[in-house]
Amino acid sequence: MDQATKTQAMKIELVSPGFGEGQMIPRENTCDGRDVSPELQWAAIPDETRSLALIVDDPDAPSGTFVHWVLYNIPIDRHELTEDMPHDDVLPNGAVQGVNDFGRIGYGGPCPPSGAHRYYFTLYALDTDLDLPPGRTKAALLDAMSNHILAKGQIMGRYKRQGSH
């Protein structure tokens, strides 16, 4: 089975207790609140999975897709990321964080300049651990993940700043 077929065949169910698919992301997870990462949970991953990776991005940003979080080498014995993950290069669970488009390590919450934007949280199951140091970009992660994706799951939340049009 080729890579595209495998990826289409396997889907991870990714959910957040804070918001449902297409719903508004809680204020505390945005720049208008505490700007902390939301809790995320997932269920079954393929048996061949060796690590997980997460990308959070906003395709509605005026300058093109804006990256809010890059996280990789998430251990497979985890089935959640708790709310308010630290902004450290390497997390207590061993996961490694990349740099977001705010220029910072870790999560940067929704902060759209105007209107409601969509935020895609995409979790990837990989057949390898990635040999990437901390602070890598989404582009570097996507390149390293190429031909290693077994499955993925996604949840999309929305956010509109109060007072924006």
SSE map:
Elements lengths: L2 H7 L4 E2 L24 E3 L8 E8 L7 E9 L5 E2 L14 E2 L18 E11 L11 H8 L3 E12 L5
Describe it.
- With 165 residues, this protein is mostly beta strands.
- The protein has a single domain, classed as PEBP-like (Phosphatidylethanolamine-binding Protein, Alpha-Beta Complex), CATH 3.90.280.10.
- Helices cover 9% and strands 30% of the residues.
- The chain contains two helices and eight strands; from the N terminus they run H-E-E-E-E-E-E-E-H-E.
- The strands form two sheets. It has a five-stranded antiparallel β-sheet with strand order 6-4-3-7-8, covered by helices on one side.
- The radius of gyration is 15 Å and the shape is globular.
What is the CATH superfamily label? Answer: PEBP-like
CATH architecture label name = Alpha-Beta Complex
- Mean pLDDT figure: 93
Largest sheet data? 5 strands, antiparallel
Please mark out the parts with pLDDT under 50 across 5 or more consecutive residues, or reply none.
Answer: none
User: H/E series, N to C?
Assistant: HEEEEEEEHE
CATH class: Alpha Beta
How far apart are the termini?
47 Å
* CA gyration radius, whole angstroms: 15 Å
**Percentage of residues assigned to helices:** under 10%
CATH fold label: Phosphatidylethanolamine-binding Protein
As a percent range, the share of strand residues is 25-35%
Numbering strands along the chain, what is their spatial order in the largest sheet?
A: 6-4-3-7-8
- Number of E strands: 8
Number of helices: 2
Identify the overall geometry.
globular
Whole-number total of structural domains: 1
Alpha-beta content class: mainly beta
